[in-house]
Write a structure and sequence with these properties.
By secondary structure, the protein is an all-alpha fold. Helices cover 83% and strands 0% of the residues.
């Protein structure tokens, strides 16, 4: 039998865990967006050395699991004299992983802008940065939105891994309660509902944004 009294009793623990999940996810996603935009701009501008560095970063980031990255930040950096809190490691890890995916999504959107737009901007005397921010980005947004929204959802789900470094997120709370009370079904049910409450609105907003920008483009 499903124990509803357990859910009522320990719901505040899940709420507290979801607050931590939202905190690290939101800041990590913002960091990923900033990193992604910088990397996409560097690749598009074809800056010789910086472009190679960006490509190496993207390959390393996308081809290593977030769990390994978190272990390196939380357990490896202290060996080098750098000690970060679990929250900082989680945010940096999400930003590091997400930055590469955001960079690819933004680069695809920017490359979809016709070459004549870039050439016209240069002829009018725009600097590369002005061309990027004032001409290309507004047009690239519609093409990049589906990838960005998918990456936001991906990063939010990936945040469940941070419980491995003893960060009290919603996944950590669920595993802790399962370990103490063996209420597996109840804990997992609340965990699923917790993620759905956050991710479904993001998905719906993303769908609305795609249609909105498609309509504007037409």
């Amino acid at each position: 039998m499903f124990d509803w009294s357990f859910v009522q009793r320990y719901a505040p623990f899940f709420v507290k865990g979801m607050e931590m999940t939202l905190f690290i996810s939101i800041i990590g996603i913002i960091l990923a967006l900033v990193v992604g935009l910088i990397c996409a701009g560097v690749e598009l501008a074809r800056v010789p050395v910086a472009r190679q560095i960006v490509r190496v970063y993207i390959e390393i980031s996308r081809n290593t699991p977030l769990l390994v990255q978190l272990y390196f930040l939380f357990f490896g950096l202290p060996k080098l004299g750098i000690v970060w809190s679990a929250e900082t490691c989680a945010i940096v890890g999400l930003g590091f992983l997400g930055g590469s995916y955001m960079a690819e999504a933004m680069r695809a959107g920017l490359q979809a802008v016709p070459e004549v737009q870039r050439e016209t901007a240069y002829v009018l005397g725009f600097t590369p940065m002005q061309s990027l921010t004032r001409v290309m980005l507004p047009q690239a947004v519609s093409g990049a939105i589906p990838g960005i929204v998918a990456n936001v959802i991906f990063l939010f789900k990936e945040s469940s891994v941070v419980s491995a470094i003893a960060l009290a997120d919603v996944m950590y709370m669920a595993k802790d309660l399962i370990g103490m009370y063996y209420s597996t079904y109840e804990s997992l049910a609340v965990l699923v509902v917790s993620y759905l409450i956050v991710l479904l609105p993001i998905s719906l907003i993303g769908t609305w944004l795609e249609r909105r920008f498609d309509y504007a483009r037409r």
